[in-house]
Amino acid sequence: MMGDGGTVVHQLDAWRLRAEPFYQPAGQEVEAFLAAHAARLPLLLKGPTGCGKTRFVEHMAWRLGLPLITIACHEDLSAGDLAGRWLLDAEGTHWQDGPLAQAARYGGICYLDELVEARSDATVLLHPLADTRRVLPLEKRGELLHAHPDFQLVVSYNPGYQGLHKGLKPSMRQRFTALAFDYPEAGIEAAIVAREGGVELDMAARLVALGQRTRRLQEHGLEEGASTRMLVHAAVLLREGLAPRAACLQAIATPLSDDADIGVALRGVVHASF
Ligand code: ADP
């Protein structure tokens, strides 16, 4: 498409989803996302790892026909990584928008995964974008970028693993609307595991029951129980021909913890389940 931003529509096209990502809703989250999007309100998704937050955003981006730019936040992620920087090459210096600036400039969903991991200069950059101003100051370039009407900010974090100093500041929280995610109820989770892992529903239900037992170990020192993602991994290994115990040890019990006692408990759960 030519005209307004022609070349770059092209550039963001690489971020468009080609096929519908399967997403099984557990409640009213689709309607909630649509409402937030219609009002261009930023959205915060909170919940444990591997419970479907990313898949949900992918599904919604596909549904809304918008490009999705995903940024995995980490402790070195700085404002420059998000906003952009001057680059030097044979022809001189030129400005390169960072992923956040690209989404804001050309319109799309920008999804910052595990936002609490990012450096504070990176999170502060989101403030004017996340409120009614909808601007991104590109200080190094001397530009105040006004967000495209299709721009939407979505962030996620896992309240379970915040270290002592990590957490979202009230100044951030108060700019967002939020949805709480958790592992879905057993019947829905089994349907997801069956479909994603390619196993029969009764086998998926047994994996979910095992997953629920590991989640109860959280009271006994396990940081986090098996996620839906892990149950899908176990299903995939089963589909590839591994025996159930071997699949569950490899996909769930072994990766979940390095602690000797918890390891014994997890292997016990696997052996009791299959
Ligand atoms: P998160 O972003 O919360 O860490 P993901 O969205 O990456 O987790 O989910 C991990 C995997 O679990 C997905 O790749 C998908 O296979 C499966 N999954 C979890 N919840 C759902 C759901 N509601 N619908 C479809 N797949 C799901």
TrEMBL record:
Domain CbbQ/NirQ/NorQ C-terminal residue range list: 189-272
Record key words, sorted: ATP-binding, Nucleotide-binding
UniProt-listed SUPFAM superfamilies: P-loop containing nucleoside triphosphate hydrolases
Coiled coil spans: none
Domain spans labelled ATPase dynein-related AAA: 42-176
GO molecular function: ATP binding; ATP hydrolysis activity
InterPro entries hit by this protein: ATPase_dyneun-rel_AAA, CbbQ/NirQ/NorQ/GpvN, CbbQ_C, P-loop_NTPase
Signal peptide residues on this chain, from the entry's feature table: none
Family assignment from sequence similarity: Belongs to the CbbQ/NirQ/NorQ/GpvN family.
Protein's UniProt name: AAA family ATPase
Protein source organism: Rhodoferax koreensis
Source taxonomy: Bacteria, Pseudomonadati, Pseudomonadota, Betaproteobacteria, Burkholderiales
